[in-house]
Design goal:
Structural class: alpha/beta
Oligomer: single chain
Strand content: 15-25%
Bound molecules: adenosine-5'-diphosphate, magnesium ion
Helix content: 25-40%
Strand order of the largest sheet: 6-7-8-3-9-10
Largest sheet: 6 strands, mixed
């Protein structure tokens, strides 16, 4: 795989809500095999950017390219099939299903039978069911939750839930994973595990856009960083370049 290929290109994207410009003429590239940080003060447009990329909002201006294809106007489901998936700033798990079943939800789209029929044991062949369970279990091992496989997702700690959410997101083997504040609400040791896991995800050739407030995490694991303020890009570069950027420090101190 070519190290400098752009898996995702954001070109001149503007997203307005009435009179408010949440994202203002934003452009950046996510290169394959990299972790790209998107940082900036609260309300600067980070989550809106993720919502635009995943088809939840349609921007008034600009293009979002996966490879060379513009995906603006496509639905979230179609964009996921093209290889871009996300996690949410707030957990979105099925608390009544088991941990394993939550990952199976993420896997079902790559199999013929739908999730409900698999959970009910209908229509799906025994082999298909076994394959899905085995893949789901393997993903739980990847994120370190295999011991929780048969517990209800609702019984997990908040931190464990965040890891489960990521297991589910990477189940479809996306090209691009968008993480919205994965460290929020985690304790120190969970943050270290989260950093390790994000680095492991990069190793399996999933490029990552990391929205995060936890600066130690961002500065330690990102290859490149884009900084937003009031919806506009105010700086971009390596972690070292960003840490030495006066305007960036000002926008954070002013927050
Ligand atoms: P961040 O994730 O960087 O904290 P957001 O992207 O959530 O910021 O929000 C950027 C701005 O857009 C904020 O002023 C927010 O209130 C506004 N905004 C976000 N979503 C909507 C929406 N659906 N309707 C109206 N305003 C919104
Ligand atoms: Mg946000």
């Amino acid at each position: 795989q070519n190290e400098s290929t752009n898996v995702l290109s954001v070109k001149d994207v503007t997203m307005k809500f009435g009179g408010l410009t949440a994202v203002n003429d934003l452009s950046f590239d996510l290169k394959s095999h990299t972790i790209h940080g998107l940082i900036g003060p609260n309300g600067c447009g980070k989550s809106t950017t993720i919502n635009v990329l995943t088809g939840i909002y349609k921007p008034q201006q600009g293009q979002v390219l996966i490879g060379s294809e513009n995906i603006v106007g496509l639905t979230t489901e179609v964009i996921a099939k093209k290889g871009m998936v996300r996690t949410f700033q707030n957990l979105q798990l099925f608390s009544g299903l088991t941990v394993l079943e939550n990952v199976m939800v993420g896997l079902h789209s790559s199999y013929k039978s739908n999730l409900l029929s698999i959970l009910l044991g209908l229509n799906s062949t025994k082999k298909e069911e076994r394959d899905i369970k085995a893949s789901a279990y393997h993903l739980l091992e990847f994120v370190g939750l295999e011991k929780q496989a048969f517990k209800k997702a609702g019984s997990l700690s908040y931190g464990q839930g965040r890891f489960l959410e990521i297991a589910r997101a990477i189940a479809t083997k996306p090209k691009v994973l968008l993480l919205d504040e994965p460290a929020a609400g985690l304790n120190h040791s969970e943050i270290l595990s989260m950093m390790e896991m994000i680095l492991k995800i990069k190793k399996i050739y999933i490029a990552i856009l990391l929205v995060e407030h936890h600066m130690d995490m961002v500065m330690n694991i990102c290859d490149e960083i884009t900084v937003l303020n009031f919806g506009q890009k105010i700086a971009a570069g390596t972690p070292t370049e960003i840490q030495n950027h006066p305007e960036v420090m000002e926008s954070y101190l002013g927050n």
